[in-house]
């Protein structure tokens, strides 16, 4: 497949823990781009953001914005987000602390996107390096 590999896995100083690309844009405008395996970890130090799920979520969304900007896209181009939480999502209609903490930060990033991107959230995931949250983002820039 031809395409531009970008994101934290493309950085020479990025610690790699698994064999995958964080992002590939196969063709260009009109074709979705997927950013995968994004956790709240600083790509230079390899350390998770301190303070729990809220700061991890904020770090992830900052990294998503940075990676999208590399190819001329922004948060407004996000179509779908898959959120994986280490803790449970919740039961009986009550969200878990992990879900509530992630969602409180997440919604601030998409308040001005109407409609906001679609999202699915799964809990009870075993994430790398003690991360509390991981995201996979699909963005799209329409053809002009």
Residues in β-strands, percent: 25-35%
Order of helices and strands: EEEHEEEHEE
**Assigned CATH superfamily:** RutC-like
Spatial extent as radius of gyration: 15 Å
| Domain tally | 1
Name of the CATH class: Alpha Beta
CATH architecture: 2-Layer Sandwich
- Order of strands across the main sheet: 1-2-3-8-4-7
How far is it from the N-terminal to the C-terminal residue, by CA? Answer: 24 Å
Q: Which class of secondary structure composition applies to the elements? A: alpha+beta
Helix content percent band: 10-25%
The overall pLDDT average reads: 82
Low-confidence parts lasting 5 or more residues at pLDDT below 50?
A: 8-16
CATH topology: 60s Ribosomal Protein L30, Chain: A
Morphology: globular
Main sheet makeup: 6 strands, mixed
Number of helices: 2
The strand count comes to 8
How does this structure look, described?
With 144 residues, this protein is α+β, with helices and mostly antiparallel strands. It has a single domain (4-139), classed as 60s Ribosomal Protein L30, Chain: A, CATH 3.30.1330.40. The protein is built from two helices and eight strands. It has helices at residues 53-69, 97-109, and strands at 4-6, 23-25, 33-39, 78-85, 90-91, 94-95, 118-122, 133-139. A six-stranded mixed sheet has the order 1-2-3-8-4-7, covered by helices on one side. Helix 1 runs parallel beside helix 2 (97-109).
Write the layout of secondary structure elements.
Layout: E1 4-6, E2 23-25, E3 33-39, H1 53-69, E4 78-85, E5 90-91, E6 94-95, H2 97-109, E7 118-122, E8 133-139
Parallel strand pairs: 4-7
Antiparallel strand pairs: 1-2, 2-3, 3-8, 4-8, 5-6
